[in-house]
């Protein structure tokens, strides 16, 4: 704290100098009392303040005792103070080495970016809240990047400083005995920093940061994109995604192998082409991609090639799931994909952008490899000497780096020793699917979608306003609005009113499934007088999302169990069947039922009704829709059934037993207690499940029959219901209507129970038997009355029979005419399609020719663009023109029939662009003149740098002479003066560095070299006495850089002139190509217009044929219905069977024709497969030739390197002997140029 009274006068000399040295770090501070765990202090000095002045008379004349002296004037007085800013690090010594390295690099980057305006890119994945905490002297927390940057800007740019260090402190007792404070030789002691009572070590920022500037997790993340996903594109190539899917919430663990570099040699044999791709991208642990969804695996064989791999591990980065969390953006796009109607496609698009794979273990180091054919195997080796021995024994002369540089086996040890300077990713391990980093609920949703189970794909309610109410049977087309990938799905549904009431008087079934929709077959029962157009059909699609691509998000939580079973139906009998289930049924579950005839001659017209259910099975009743009449009691239904049986003749009865139709019974069980479904095609509307299916409840549950071992119990699955009828309005027997078949069953049941139970059961059975008998008697009476009515109706039917037969004959003739017309139309359509195919083939040839011309034009444009970039000319408009040309070409080839007008508009725009191109050329000439002026300026700067460096060399020689003489003759005080001169020389060199930085900004290609020079120079000139040799080397490097810069500028000037000439030539060529392209497009436009007119005519013919085909199908279905009814009424008429046989024969003929077409298509497919196999063989042969060619180039490159090595040795000898080396330099440069050309050729292959 300041003293009560002053010590020196206020009008003394005050000197303020900018602090030029680096910040200072004090480690292990306040070791005695450190409750806050603040153990590191960083001082950022900005200004050095020195005060020289006389002492106050009052201070000099003070005569009281020492205690009073210290109370008034304090304990010490300072000669010099440092002003700037202070940062304190909390608990720095307890942090992990990874956190320490990241924080050091972070502070180093912020300091250099603010003070020297050097832009240093670093990853923003690691925020300050993951690192040891930073606070200022005032207690303000620096917990964000913005806060720390603003604090640094205020410090170095706005000069908002505080006193951070008191230098050269003098005791008040000593000071009082001296007259003047100026130039005194009083003894001083250590400096004092606010907030620091003691410390262990004082370091500069460079010393403190050390090797962390290059080797830290933040640098690796920036250089290698560590925490981004790996994308496997459609060409089976692995890329690193540009999007970052994760945020780091905890610093990953990094294991270092600095003490013992782990090296090993291994051989890998890929069996498939995709495994070869994984190995080439440093992925060795994945052998099967079945566990990784959203990746298309290429299983093509790739045997015979072995990968020889030498790896040297330096660092191991372990990224556990608790280290990262998904970004908000990634979670949002995943959620949008999950809520899509096509979730699989949407998820595929997301992972194609963010990545499919995510490595949790990354190895950094260096690696060498080679690919050899038919190579003998050997065991893995993990010792450097044994690696070299194995290479010698295997006759492997060289290996390749990841960048294609050749490393001979004799240079392997040297290469391993230098691995610290060139780290790279050598292995990705512990790889998981990228979606596994998401939260658990999103993972479960994705896993649920990926399962190959039956689910509710879509629901809907469709009105029937467009139907004809006068028809008893209607066909309603229902479209999805989206296109499915497969027709393998099932539809369940019912007819409902606007008030959600199920309509029992109308029967509905579904068929004719395709990719875009299906048909609902709607039949009104006889005697029904309702307006069908006022009702709706409610439908549910059941299928597998992985096959259909559509999966509505509305009902995904419902689990579905799908059962398909073929059963045989007997005519004139109630048909019952038991469906066994794999899951245990519970109350509240919902059951959908649907049936289809296996034979194509019949349409689905059966009503499926649930009778009862047990824990593992469901009983259904199946009845034809024609046997159901509305608004009649169950007894009437039974009477009708009996009446129909009585009217059958004995001879026909045997035939009826043989008439068996096979149907496919399809059952869907929703294992949920949900009461309704969300409807997809209407907003905010639900449909109750009992409107579509049956709810399992206590009323239809049969608990007594759940035990299958009790074979003697009464079953409701009655195949012959002569003695029992249903009391349900829907002809559906209830479980309580069980009637013993005979007294023997009663006796058997009584025999198995004790006396009391037998008595109770006997009473119950007697009561049931009595009720059943009364019901049967009543039914018989009702049937007798109904039989008389049926006799009258039968006579009327006989009279109408002749009329129906005549109508049927007329329909058959009409059908035959339509079939003939349809066959002729098919032949005409086939001829038209063949002609159209030829025309399209010609169009494709012309398109390929135009594609080649456009490709050549694109290549010229791309070359022109690259030359403009090298000359630093703004060619943004030319690139836009180029991209638009490419877009025009792409749109033209993909949709030439629909986008012709857009092409014409783009051609007009192209003419405008031609004018813009001329203006751009003028701008280019102006830019070239500016570039000439800039080059002259750079040459002048170079000359100034030449003169400065020559002057500096002269001064260095003088300083060397002075130093040698001063070391022998002068004392330590004079050495301080020499250091002052050295500091002046250092300032001059810093000025030179500033000029080099300016020159570096003007020439972007030399930016990195000058940046390295700046950092190297800053660290090498700090102490001249210890680093004099390094300084001399630096000056030599500057001279080399100066010469290189002069050569580059001269070459650049020549290159710009040549580029200007080439650009002018290319512009003229591009204009000519543009004119040619316009002519071709005009010709193509005329040709496409002709094709378009032909296509329109073909489309009209196709629509006519489709309409006729639909009409034929409807007529065919009506004829089949008429045939089915006539078959039941007049089974004895043989001509009906002959007609059916004729129709079947015609159907078989058409089927055989279709099979013949299918066989031809299969042959074409086989030919294409063989052609594809031939191409693959050629590709494999080219790959083998490419490998052999690489080996030839590598061998040539080795020979050239040996020749270059011999030339270099001879050059060294000439230099030692003092001979002229100009010719050797030329020869050396020629060899280096040849080697560079060979390396470029090798990289192309």
Automatic annotation (TrEMBL):
Q: Using the UniProt annotation, give all residue ranges assigned to the region (Disordered).
A: 629-656
Q: Which UniProt keywords apply?
A: Coiled coil
Lineage, top-rank taxon, reads Eukaryota
Spell out the Basic and acidic residues composition-biased ranges.
Answer: 639-650
Which segments of the protein form a coiled coil according to its record? 770-1016, 1053-1122, 1165-1241
**Matching PANTHER family, A to Z?**
CHROMOSOME UNDETERMINED SCAFFOLD_10, WHOLE GENOME SHOTGUN SEQUENCE (PTHR45615:SF63), MYOSIN HEAVY CHAIN, NON-MUSCLE (PTHR45615)
This protein is called what?
Uncharacterized protein
| Organism whose genome encodes this protein | Rhizophagus irregularis
């Amino acid at each position: 704290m300041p003293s009560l009274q002053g010590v020196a006068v206020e009008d003394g000399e005050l000197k303020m100098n900018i602090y030029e040295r680096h910040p200072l770090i004090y480690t292990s501070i306040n070791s005695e009392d450190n409750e806050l765990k603040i153990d590191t202090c960083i001082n950022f000095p900005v200004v050095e303040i020195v005060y020289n002045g006389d002492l106050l008379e009052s201070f000099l004349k003070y005569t009281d005792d020492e205690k009073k002296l210290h109370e008034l004037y304090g304990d010490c007085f300072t000669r010099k103070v440092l002003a700037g800013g202070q940062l304190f690090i909390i608990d720095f010594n307890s942090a992990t080495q990874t956190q320490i390295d990241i924080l050091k690099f972070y502070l180093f980057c912020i300091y250099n970016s603010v003070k020297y305006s050097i832009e240093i890119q670093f990853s923003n994945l690691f925020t300050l809240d993951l690192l040891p905490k930073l606070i200022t002297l005032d207690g303000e927390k620096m917990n964000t990047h913005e806060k720390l940057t603003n604090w640094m800007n205020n410090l170095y740019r706005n000069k908002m400083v505080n006193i951070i260090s008191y230098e050269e402190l003098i005791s008040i007792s000593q000071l009082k005995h001296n007259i003047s404070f100026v130039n005194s030789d009083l003894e001083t002691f250590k400096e004092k920093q606010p907030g620091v009572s003691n410390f262990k070590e004082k370091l500069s920022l460079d010393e403190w940061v050390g090797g962390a500037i290059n080797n830290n997790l933040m640098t690796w993340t920036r250089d290698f994109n560590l925490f981004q996903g790996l994308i496997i594109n459609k060409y089976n190539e692995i890329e690193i995604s540009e999007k970052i899917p994760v945020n780091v919430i905890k610093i990953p663990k990094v294991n270092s192998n600095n003490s013992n570099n782990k090296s090993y040699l291994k051989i890998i044999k890929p069996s498939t082409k995709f495994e070869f791709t994984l190995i080439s991208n440093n992925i060795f642990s994945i052998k099967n991609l079945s566990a990784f969804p959203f990746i298309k695996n290429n299983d093509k064989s790739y045997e015979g090639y072995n990968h020889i791999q030498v790896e040297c591990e330096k660092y191991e980065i372990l990224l556990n799931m608790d280290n990262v969390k998904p970004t908000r953006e990634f979670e949002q796009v995943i959620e949008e994909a999950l809520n899509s109607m096509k979730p699989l496609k949407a998820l595929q698009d997301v992972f194609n952008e963010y990545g499919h794979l995510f490595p949790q273990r990354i190895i950094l180091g260096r690696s060498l490899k080679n690919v050899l054919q038919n190579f003998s195997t050997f065991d893995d080796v993990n010792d450097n000497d044994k690696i070299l021995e194995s290479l010698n024994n295997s006759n492997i002369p060289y290996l390749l780096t990841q960048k294609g540089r050749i490393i001979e086996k004799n240079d392997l040890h040297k290469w391993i020793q230098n691995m610290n300077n060139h780290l790279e990713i050598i292995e990705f391990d512990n790889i998981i699917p990228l979606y596994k980093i998401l939260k658990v609920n999103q993972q479960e949703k994705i896993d649920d979608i990926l399962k190959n189970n039956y689910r509710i794909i879509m629901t809907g309610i469709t009105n029937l306003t467009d139907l004809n109410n006068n028809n008893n049977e209607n066909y309603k087309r229902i479209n999805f609005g989206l296109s499915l990938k497969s027709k393998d799905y099932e539809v369940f549904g019912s007819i409902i009113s606007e008030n959600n009431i199920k309509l029992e008087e109308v029967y509905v079934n579904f068929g004719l499934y395709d990719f875009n929709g299906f048909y609902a077959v709607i039949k009104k029962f006889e005697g029904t007088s309702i307006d069908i157009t006022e009702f709706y059909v409610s439908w549910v699609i059941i299928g597998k999302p992985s096959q259909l691509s559509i999966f509505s998000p509305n009902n995904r939580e419902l689990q579905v169990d799908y059962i398909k079973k073929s059963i045989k139906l007997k005519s004139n009998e109630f048909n019952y069947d038991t469906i066994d289930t794999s899951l245990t049924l519970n109350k509240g579950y919902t059951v959908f039922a649907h049936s289809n005839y296996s034979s194509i001659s019949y349409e689905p017209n059966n009503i499926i009704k649930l009778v009862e259910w047990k824990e593992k099975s469901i009983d259904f009743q199946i009845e034809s829709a024609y046997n159901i009449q509305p608004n009649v009691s169950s007894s009437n239904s039974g009477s009708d059934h009996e009446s129909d049986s009585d009217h059958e003749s004995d001879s026909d009865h045997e035939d009826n037993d043989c008439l068996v139709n096979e149907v496919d019974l399809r059952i869907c069980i929703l294992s949920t207690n949900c009461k309704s479904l969300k409807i997809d095609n209407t907003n905010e509307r639900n449909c109750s499940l009992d409107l579509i299916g049956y709810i399992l409840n206590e009323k239809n549950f049969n608990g007594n029959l759940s035990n299958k071992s009790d074979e003697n119990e009464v079953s409701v699955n009655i195949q012959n219901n002569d003695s029992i009828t249903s009391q349900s309005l829907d002809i559906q027997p209830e479980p309580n209507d069980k009637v013993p078949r005979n007294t023997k069953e009663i006796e058997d049941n009584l025999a198995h129970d004790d006396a009391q139970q037998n008595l109770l059961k006997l009473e119950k059975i007697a009561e049931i038997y009595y009720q059943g008998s009364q019901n049967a008697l009543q039914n018989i009476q009702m049937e007798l009355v109904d039989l008389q009515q049926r006799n009258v109706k039968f006579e009327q039917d006989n009279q109408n029979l002749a009329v129906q037969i005549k109508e049927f004959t007329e329909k058959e003739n009409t059908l035959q005419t339509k079939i003939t017309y349809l066959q002729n139309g098919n032949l005409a359509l086939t001829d038209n399609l063949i002609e159209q195919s030829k025309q399209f083939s010609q169009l494709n040839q012309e398109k390929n020719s135009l594609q080649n011309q456009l490709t050549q034009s694109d290549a010229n444009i791309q070359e022109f663009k690259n030359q403009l970039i090298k000359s630093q000319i703004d060619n943004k408009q030319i690139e836009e023109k180029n991209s638009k040309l490419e877009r025009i070409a792409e749109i033209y080839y993909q949709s030439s029939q629909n986008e012709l007008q857009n092409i014409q508009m783009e051609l007009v725009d192209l003419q405008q662009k031609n004018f813009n191109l001329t203006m751009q050329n003028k701008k280019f000439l102006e830019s070239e003149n500016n570039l000439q002026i800039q080059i002259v300026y750079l040459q002048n700067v170079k000359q100034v740098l030449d003169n400065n460096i020559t002057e500096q060399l002269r001064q260095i020689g003088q300083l060397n002479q002075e130093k040698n003489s001063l070391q022998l003759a002068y004392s330590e005080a004079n050495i301080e003066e020499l250091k002052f001169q050295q500091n002046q020389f250092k300032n001059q060199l810093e000025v030179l560095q500033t000029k080099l930085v300016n020159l570096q900004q003007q020439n972007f290609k030399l930016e990195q070299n000058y940046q390295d020079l700046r950092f190297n120079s800053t660290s090498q000139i700090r102490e001249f006495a210890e680093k004099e040799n390094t300084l001399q080397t630096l000056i030599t490097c500057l001279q080399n850089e100066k010469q290189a810069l002069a050569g580059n500028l001269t070459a650049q000037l020549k290159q710009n002139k040549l580029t200007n000439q080439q650009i002018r030539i290319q512009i003229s060529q591009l204009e000519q190509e543009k004119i040619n392209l316009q002519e071709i497009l005009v010709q193509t436009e005329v040709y496409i217009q002709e094709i378009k007119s032909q296509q329109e005519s073909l489309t009209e013919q196709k629509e006519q044929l489709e309409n006729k085909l639909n009409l034929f199908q409807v007529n065919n279905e009506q004829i089949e219905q008429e045939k089915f009814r006539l078959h039941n009424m007049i089974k004895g008429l043989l001509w009906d069977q002959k007609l059916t046989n004729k129709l079947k024969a015609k159907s078989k003929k058409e089927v055989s024709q279709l099979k013949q077409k299918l066989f031809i298509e299969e042959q074409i497919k086989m030919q294409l497969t063989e052609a594809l196999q031939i191409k693959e063989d050629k590709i494999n042969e080219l790959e083998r030739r490419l490998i052999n060619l690489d080996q030839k180039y590598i061998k040539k490159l080795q020979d050239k390197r040996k020749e270059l090595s011999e030339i270099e040795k001879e050059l060294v000898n000439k230099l030692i002997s003092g001979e002229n080396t100009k010719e050797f330099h030329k020869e050396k440069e020629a060899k280096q140029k040849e080697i560079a050309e060979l390396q470029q050729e090798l990289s192309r292959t």
